[in-house]
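Narrative of activities, Objective 1.

The group set out to show that a structural description can be obtained from nothing but a protein's sequence at a throughput compatible with the screening campaign. Below is one input-output pair from the validation batch, recorded exactly as produced.
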Amino acid sequence: MKLIARNAVAKDAKKIKQQFHNLLTKANKERPRPTDLQALTQILNENKELELWKAVVGMGELAESQALDTIINGSGQGMRECWRQRLKVMRANLGHAESSPLERC
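Output recorded for this entry:
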């Protein structure tokens, strides 16, 4: 009986995650429809245990992406890829994978 209940919960979680991604796509615009934004907020609030927000890029990744866009602007994708590799090695050398969640931000 417990296995059936666990499968139902997993199926519901998958459905909720898909709804979240659909709403995120609709709301992630310069001027989203207010109803889409409200629905996104509602699904986040009603499903806190799923931590749906983790599907969105973190502050560190966002800052890295913005920096690369600014610094590499006009240099092309080859330069961007070289910097991505450089940053990947730097994170590994600094023990990024073993650091606390706060440090990984």
